[in-house]
Amino acid sequence: MSTTTQSLAQSKQGDSGKRTLLRSLLRKDVALSGPAWLPLALVLGAVSAVAYADHHVVSVSLVYLYILPLAVGAIFLRKRVSYSLIVICVLFHDYYSPRGMNPGLRLFHNVSAMLCFAFVVYVIQRYMEQREALAKTVQQQRDDLLKDVELAAEVQRLFLPSDKPAVAGLEIAGMMHAARGVSGDYYDYFPIDGHTTQIVVADVAGKGVPAALLMSATAAAMRMK
User: Fold this and answer.
1) Per residue in 60-89, pLDDT tens?
2) What is the model's pTM?
3) Among 113, 134, 25, 132, which residue's Cα sits nearest to residue 64?
């Protein structure tokens, strides 16, 4: 029984290690958004399809078609992996090129293709980096806004009564639960004398920060009377 359990644990660790290895090849946002094998399969499938076509078509050069898998790879893969894919594509094209080509012309053809591929990958990588930076900025602003709303909600709760009034024969309780963190709901208790307590209940039209500001002003005005 213990041997079976150990085997299962080792199998799970192996699967986890494979998933970690696959995700290490992808961009961070891509690795966190879905299965790691799908973008890799898409890139490898595109490279294989172009290489297969390049192998069978010998009358014309199909080097420009490698831009497709390289562009897909630049979108999904990390920078180093994307640039490594350029070398693989150039090697594929060089291998499937006609053997009788002049060596100098072959070298020039491969180097120019590599430079063009590098330029395409660089442009797409820069775009993806700017997109990631923008997404991080938006997320940071959203987190800061949520923190500000939570702080405003704490301040707003200070305007509400913390103790319920003591009225003989009655049990009074109140609670305010905001739909958006802060709201325009307001209630309070004002003891008049030993037998009389004034209860105030108000609801500002609208929701969110504007309603909360008006509620706070109303609460302050009521307590100043």
Assistant:
1) 778 888 999 999 999 998 888 899 999 999
2) 0.65
3) 113
